[in-house]
Amino acid sequence: MSGAEPTHDKGEPMVEWRISDGLVDYETALAEMEARVADIAEGKAEELIWLLEHPPLYTAGTSARIEDLTDPDRFPVYEARRGGQYTYHGPGQRVAYVMLDIGKRGRDVRQFVCAMEDWVIKTLAEFNVRGERREGRVGVWVTREDKPANIDGTPREDKIAAIGVRLRKWVSFHGLSINVEPDLEHFEGIVPCGIREHGVTSLVDLGLPVTMDDVDNALRRSFDTVFGGK
Question: Which of 170, 172, 33, 180 lies closest to 120, judged by CA?
């Protein structure tokens, strides 16, 4: 496991950055995340951004519908206890677990989720990818002008990042995932986030030779512009 030193601006909460090497077991990550959230809530630890990859698996959020798990025997399925529906995690996907004290950051959950989306969008912009929100859909999307339009003539849109968070005592956990170079065929065992009308893409699928280190560096820079270290 490798990581960065905690950083902060004067008078603002410290944020530790951690990057795990290899694939991290999901249940191990969940236990560590919940322990850290408890310590943050009690003032015993700094806020944490944890960057990692998981082995292939599906997670079910609190709104998951069983009919959206189309291949239940393909990979392990975990109850994530976060918002949202079914999500895939696996090698080549950067997962960012976000443990921030929202109690000290305005106590505005809607604004926090919006900031998470902005963080992804600004990160993608560093690679000249235009990530966009879509009303009524979870995650961040890209318009695929390079692919045939939908039957109704509208441009095809693919999902490139998922967002799902939970708060406990005003401390956030879970977070986001960005598809860097995962096996996109692995998404076929679920209906990602319950949306059947659109596909899934990745930075490499878009033709960009982006590495995980590139994405980590962009996440770090974009975090500072969105959250300001506080």
Answer: 180
